[in-house]
Amino acid sequence: MKKIKKVVFPVAGLGTRFLPATKASPKEMLPIVDKPLIQYAAEEAASAGIKELIFIIGRTKNAIIDHFDSAPELENELIDKNKKSLLRLVRKIVPKNIDCFFVRQNKPSGLGHAIHCAKNIIKDEPFAVILADDLIKSKTPCLKQLIDVYYKKKSTVLALEKIEKSETDKYGIVEYHSREDNLFKIKSIIEKPSPKKAKTNLAVVGRYIFTPEIFSKIEKVKPGKGKEIQITDAIDGLMKDEAVHGYIFEGKRFDCGSKLGYLKATVEYALEHDELSKDFINYLKKLKI
Asked: What helix, strand, coil percent values describe the chain, rounded to 5?
């Protein structure tokens, strides 16, 4: 079985929910305490054994390229000032055994289209996808959990989360044939159904493991609302030819694509930060909210 060593980060979106902050800066570069969202995602991938990071970027996303590029001027400055701890932080943004690739998506055309932009790099290998604005805190990296399921089932695997039924119109919702504990064999997937039409409250969230057959399915999807190619339509086509599984992961997800989710993540990560937690807790106590 081919090992999963490549991950795709679709980061070409416009981040309109965070305007004006995202007018000139990518939403994936918004910091949670002292690291941007995209770095948390890259670290999760590296911890799961991924060796190649593929970023699908838009015209305004050069800050992401710069973040993962070398910075000799900055490093020399830190060396001159003997700031060794900061130097280590900068140098480990991209571990030495990790390669980064950047692919330009001409315009935001849906998640399916963004993933398809990586086809020439992925070729005929299974691969992972991470949506960086879904920040997931867990003991075992969420992506590693999905990879383990892939090696067991040898099929596409979707990260699932139980949501409030009233929220189904914000997610892709799955129906299943069967289940083994937290593992489900998927029967159908529908993009953003109304609460009345949703068959379950199992939502697909920002982690995927795909077999390379997904590319041919994406190519057959007709553009929908906003002329976007939806990955849910491609997954639906994939299920006609092979099994697709969903897995309720261990961990806590923060929807950092929303302002409230972003604030929750900032607070919870600050509460666990080695340097800040004590002072931050004391500050919150003084607020007496």
From this structure: 40, 25, 35
